[in-house]
DUF6534 domain-containing protein
Amino acid sequence: MQPPPEMNRRAVIGFDNRITSHIIAYPQGAYDSASLDVVTSIPPCYELHMMAPAQFPIFSVFAELVSPLLIGTMIACPLFGVTVAQAIWYFRNYPNDPNLLKHWIAAVVVIDGVQTFSVVDATIVVYLRGRLSLDYSNGIILDLYVSCITVTMVQLAYTYRVWILSGKNRYVTSALAFLTFSQFTSGIGMSILQQINGDVTLLHSVVSDAFGTTEFSSTVACDLLISASMAYYLNKHKRRSGIRRTENLLEGLIIYVIGIGLLTSVFAIIVFVTWVALPKQLIFLTFHSIISKLYVNSLLVTLNARSGFRAKDVSVSESIGMSVLNTGASSSTA
């Protein structure tokens, strides 16, 4: 027997112990959402009335999904506005940058826009439409994929900078490439697994935990190694310069690099800690929704800061090739 057409009037009043089969009440009767069979007798615990989230686990799970996602979306949208402003500034002020770099930045910004759309879509589906379902929305799945890709692209750009700044040191860049590859493959693996599972309650399965832990820990390790490597090689340039003005500028560059690196590293650590320490909650979604935007903005900020550093000391720009702020090819804008 099929349920009545008033699908929008349903109310969840029960579930099994895995919260995968919901008993739904309609004006004409009660149905099991999994089999669409008529439920002839409803246990007393399924009595239809308003219950607090603590008394009614499905509403508690729903609230745990909505709250972090909503907070993350409210922060992600303004950050995307900053991304767009940074991108416009970049393309207007550095038209002579290498085409590969400009195409890379354009791709990163477009992908960041897709990520913004994904979290907004997820919020609309899960929150505004009030869909009391533990199934993933397409937006959440898309966010998992796109965030992983965005972080990978930004980390590859930083890895190339370290490659140039270090004088093509194979050991450091190989370690960074390995961590980036580990982050990417485990992130895609977790995204595929969640798409297959399609259920929030299976988020922390054994395999998913392994993928997620590998992804987030690799991200943290890669960020810290990038910041440490840049600071180390800039400090080497500083010791070799012997010119006070140059040393002061390189000190500023070191502080700048460490500050930018710490920002992304701290958020990556927060995502990792909330993922590992709070497996029964979805707080990590708040930070996961915005971390890719921090990566994109950190890349754009360093690129847009080139003219400011060049204005202070052109000789330093020439001597180190602006590797920390460039991608190895110098811009003609000075």
About this structure: The chain is about 70% helix and 5% strand. The longest helix spans residues 57-93. The chain has two domains: 7-46, 57-320.
